[in-house]
Amino acid sequence: MAATQFKPVSEQLAYLKKGAAEIIREEDLMAKLEQSAKTGKPLRVYLGVDPTAPDIHLGHTVVLRKLKHFQDMGHTAIFLIGDFSAMIGDPTGQSETRPPLTREQVDANAKTYLAQVYTILDREKTEVRYNSEWLDKMSSYDVVRLCGHYRLARMLEREDFRSRLDQNLPISVHELLYPLLTACDAVSLRSDVELGATEQKFNLLVHRDIQREYGLPAQAVLTMPILVGLDGGRKMSKSLNNYVAITESPGEMFGKLMSISDELMWSYYELLTDFAPPVIVRLREEVRTGVLHPMDAKMQLAHVIIAGFHGEAAAKKAADEFRRVFRERQAPEEAPRQTLPRGESKRLSALLVELKLASSKSEAERLMEQGGVEIDGVRFDDARKEIDLSQPTEFLLRAGKKKFLRIVVE
C-alpha cells in the first residue's frame, strides 16, 4: 500500500485545532502528526458514541465534524458504536443510575445513528466498529485484571460520583466500571487520538492511563465544547426541547436556527461550519460596524448548516420560504389547512381561540389590536369583528408573524 501524502504538520494542526476546547497534550498530538507525516501512515482517530437515543441533533455533530476534519487530513476515522457500553450507561452528568437499555433498543438506535452519521463522514473512508466485538468476549478474569489497573480513590475523584456521595445518593458498581470498560476500546483499537466533548474528559483521561497500563503509547485527546441550545443558556438536548435534529425538514431547521441570539450565532459559526477563523472574525466585524445585518449573517449560517444535510437546493428553498413568511409576512407556499363546518357568524377573536391561534380571548383581542391578525392580507384590528361562516368559502388567516392557516368552510 502506498504511503499517504499529508499536508504540512503545522497546516494540519491549525485546521484540527479550530473550535477545540482542549488538546491533551498538544505536544503529543504534534509528535504523532510528525511521525505520521514521516512514515506516511495515517493516525487512528476515533469517536465512541453510545446509541442511547435514535436521533442525532446538531450538538452531537460538533465532535463528529472534528472526526471528519481528521478524515479530511488523510487520517483513519473510526466511528465506534458503544453497543455494549450503552447497556451500562455512561454516568457522566448523571445524578442517578440510568435505567439499562435492552440489546434490541441499542441495535435499533445504532442502525439509525449510522444513516445519520454518513451525512457528515465519508461512508467509504470510515471504519465502523462496535465495542461488543471485544467487550462481549471478556472473561471474569479479564475484568478483574482490568480493575487492578486503576485505583478506587481516583475513580471517586470524578465530579459526578463525588457529588452523589456528598448527597448520599446511590452509585452502582457497574457505573465505576464504565470508564474502565470503554478504555478497552482505546486498547483494542490501538488508537492514536480520541475525540470527545468536554464533559467526557474524565473518561478520556482514564483511557490514556489504561493504554499505558497495557503497554501501548497513550493516545492524544481532543475535546470539543458543548453546543449551547436554542434557549441560549443550557446545552443542546432533546429533553430540554432546545435542539435542532439533523433529520428535521429544512424549513424546521431554518426557523429554529434563525431563533438563536445574535451572540450565540458566532459559536454556531465556529462549531457547525468550516468557515476559517479569519472569515468568522471578518463577518463579526461587519455585523458590529453595520456593514452586515445580523439577520443576514444568521441566514447565511442557517443556509450553510442545512445545505450540509439536505443539499443546496433545499437550503435555498428554506431560506426563500423564511424570507417570504417572516420578513415579507407573506403566506408560506403550503400553509396548513383547517376545515370548518358551515354555521352562524362568529367573532374573529373567538375563532382565533377555537383554532388555537391564541390561548385566550384577551390574548386574541390584544393580538388584533396590535395589528397581528389578517385575512387574505387585510388587517383586522376590531376585536368585535364577526366572520360569516354560513356559506362555503376559503380564506388565509394570519395570527402573529408566524402562524398561518388556510380556513375552508364547507
Identify the CATH class of the largest domain.
Answer: Alpha Beta
Strand % is: 5-15%
Report strand order across the widest sheet.
Answer: 1-6-5-2-3-4
Radius of gyration: 27 Å
Task: Give a verbal description of the structure.
By secondary structure, the chain is an alpha/beta fold. The chain has 3 domains: 216 residues, Rossmann fold; 78 residues, Tyrosyl-Transfer RNA Synthetase, CATH 1.10.240; 73 residues, RNA-binding S4 domain (Structural Genomics Hypothetical 15.5 Kd Protein In mrcA-pckA Intergenic Region, Chain A, Roll), CATH 3.10.290.10. The chain is built from 17 helices and 13 strands. The strands form 3 sheets. A 6-stranded mixed β-sheet has the order 1-6-5-2-3-4, sandwiched between helices. A 5-stranded mixed β-sheet has the order 7-13-12-9-10, with no helix packed on it. Helix 1 crosses helix 2, helix 9 crosses helix 10 and helix 16 crosses helix 17.
In short:
The chain has 410 residues and is of the alpha/beta class. The chain has helices spanning 9-17, 26-39, 58-72, 103-117, 132-135, 140-147, 152-155, 159-166, 173-189, 201-213, 250-257, 264-272, 277-288, 294-310, 312-327, 348-354, 361-369, and strands at 22-24, 44-49, 76-81, 126-130, 193-197, 220-224, 337-340, 346-347, 373-375, 378-379, 386-387, 393-399, 403-409.
